[in-house]
Specification:
By secondary structure, the chain is of the alpha+beta class. The chain is built from nine helices and 19 strands. A six-stranded mixed sheet has the order 1-2-6-3-7-18, sandwiched between helices. It has a four-stranded antiparallel sheet with strand order 12-14-10-15. The chain has a three-stranded antiparallel sheet with strand order 4-5-19. The structure holds zinc ion (ZN).
């Protein structure tokens, strides 16, 4: 017989909720949450579906955070099973969103059901903030709802994000922060001409070689105990008309930095532009700051309680880390909320044949329940 967590996970996974679509996932969650006594609100902002639910009026509030949207399935012919038909094979559940992160949402819901049944009058409050815009621009999702909560003085003290934080086995890694993300969109401007008459042209490819190599070779910092060193990676570069006898007029490139708190966006921008200017490049650059670094100290009470619960429940202590891509945890952190991310193994996220181990799905629900107990009643 399928467990309640598996049933709910499959129900969510059968809905093709590619960003920003929700396909009824949050309505389904509402039915579970209202049955447990949560007050549920839906906020639809520019086609993005958001659900906020809360049970209790006391502080502190633990907010479970997650997203019902998924990235596109990608190459359908490479999937062994249809991506939106959840399929169990050899004790693994396959579907787009199985690890990132509909299984976590199912585990959060069933953990709350059992916890509330045992401790209906527990101190503190439990909340859910679920969006359908985590994998997209993330403007009308968590960020927008937190603004509403701030105006109502309902910012949660604690946030547990269910993103797939684990590497090899469940909760071997928990994320306590993230590096910042900064992207530069750079155009190096030359003058188009005939390759036989270079004196009448200005070749932006030649202009770019030395400064771009210099930028790529910068050591930004050494990182800190909980942050790897900052890193700049070029992601795209284009120039040329396709013809072999034309010097192009422009070179376009973009690069992204994942940076630690040891480096600031202002320092990065000044350094990059300083190199371009030093080499006499004519250029235009647009900077997009995806997020500043954030971090909840590991000796913080909330982080310690979650980490010790993991150790008690699973028999090993989690590695507390700040690696990986951005998550909505960054928006909570801006308001002073203490944030930890604990979720499934991330080996298959955003890939074809995304999956979660069924036993780990059940363990995850048990772990979330144990975290609730440790935070509110022990
Ligand atoms: Zn995710």
């Amino acid at each position: 017989m399928r467990s309640k967590t598996l049933e709910l996970a499959c129900d969510l996974l059968s809905r093709p909720s590619v960003t920003p679509k929700d396909e009824g996932c949050q309505q389904l969650l509402e039915s579970y949450l209202t049955a447990m006594g949560f007050t549920v609100e839906h906020h639809i902002i520019n086609n993005v579906s958001n659900l906020f639910a809360i049970r209790g009026t006391q502080k502190p509030t633990l907010c479970f955070a997650g997203h019902t949207d998924v990235v596109p399935a990608g190459d359908l012919s490479s999937w062994r099973t249809p991506p939106f038909t959840p399929t169990i094979e050899k004790n693994k559940l396959y579907a787009r969103g199985a690890a990132d992160m509909k299984s976590s949402i199912a585990a959060m819901i069933t953990a709350c059901e059992r916890f509330i049944q045992l401790y209906p009058e527990h101190p503190g409050s439990i909340a859910f903030l679920i969006t359908s815009d985590e994998e997209g621009p993330a403007l009308d999702g968590t960020q927008a709802i937190l603004k509403i909560l701030e105006a109502r003085q309902q910012i949660p003290e604690w946030c547990l994000v269910g993103e797939p934080s684990s590497t090899v086995k469940l909760a071997d890694t928990a994320k306590i922060g993230r590096r910042g993300s900064l992207t530069g969109y750079l155009k190096i401007i030359g003058k188009q001409g005939h390759v036989a008459y270079p004196q009448l042209a200005l070749n932006p490819i030649h202009q770019a070689f030395i400064p771009l190599a210099e930028i790529a070779a910068i050591t930004w910092d050494q990182g800190t105990e909980f942050f790897p060193p900052s890193s700049l990676q070029f992601a795209n570069i284009q120039a040329g008309t396709g013809a072999a006898n034309v010097i192009p007029g422009i070179l376009e490139t973009n690069f992204n930095l994942r940076f630690s708190p040891e480096t600031t966006p202002e320092h990065i921008q000044a350094t990059v532009e300083g190199i371009l200017q030093k080499h006499g490049c004519e250029y235009h650059i647009d900077w997009i700051l995806g997020g500043k670094p954030f971090y909840t100290a590991p000796d913080n009470d909330f982080i310690r309680k979650v980490a010790t619960t993991i150790e008690k429940t699973l028999g090993y202590a989690p590695l507390l880390s700040t690696t990986g891509g951005t998550s909505d945890g960054r928006f909570f952190a801006q308001y002073g909320t203490q944030v930890i991310e604990v979720g499934p193994v991330n080996a298959t996220i955003h890939q074809v044949n995304e999956c979660i181990d069924i036993d780990e799905l059940e363990q995850l629900s048990a772990l979330y329940e144990a975290i609730l107990v440790n935070l509110f009643v022990s």
